[in-house]
Amino acid sequence: MSQPTQLPPLTPQFCFNTRVLRDFLRLSRSTIDDSISTNLNALLTPSTARPFTSTSTSTRSPPTLPHQRIPASTSSVFLSTVLFPTWQARSDVIHYCTSVATSPDPSDPDLIEREALNRKDAERIVDERLDPYSGRFFPREGRAETLAGLLRNENAVEGIVRQRTWTVVAERCDGVENDASWEAALDTWRERQQR
């Protein structure tokens, strides 16, 4: 069975290093969510009715079900010890980095250069009759704005990934209602963790 994703040390440097941030989210998703069927299959015990022998592979029996249902006791352990803690770790990272992105960033290394370019642009005289492209100015984003845009995208991806994962879990696990949303299940798990 897969292990839950561990929460990395949360610092502004972690958030502003967008490559490391994206790698953490990507690795966490690939370990649990992208391989959810494999993780759920690992919860099933091998057949004890027909143990392996040298002749057991000589005849093929048709599969009984495309996916065997996972008992509620087994699936609830997986959900509460692996899936939900992993989702919570990613939520914590996204929430923390969002607060970093919306806070003032006085230590931005490009702040002085960007302000100089903005002042220089304000002083430009634009005559679009002579040069129709002279009116174009593409201001560079600060690292906080870049981080905020990345987090908006990652938050949207997170919602899609969780919905897809929850659909597979609801199809395969006993004790999980098909009409229950992943948000409600995660909120219920969080409430139990706070007790």
From TrEMBL:
The record's InterPro entries line, in alphabetical order, gives:
MIX23
Q: Where is this region: Disordered?
A: 47-69
Looking at the record's lineage, which domain of life comes first? Eukaryota
What ranges does the record list as Low complexity composition bias? Answer: 47-62
Q: What do the Gene Ontology cellular component annotations say?
A: mitochondrial intermembrane space
The record's comment on protein family reads:
Belongs to the MIX23 family.
Official protein name in the record: Caffeine-induced death protein Cid2
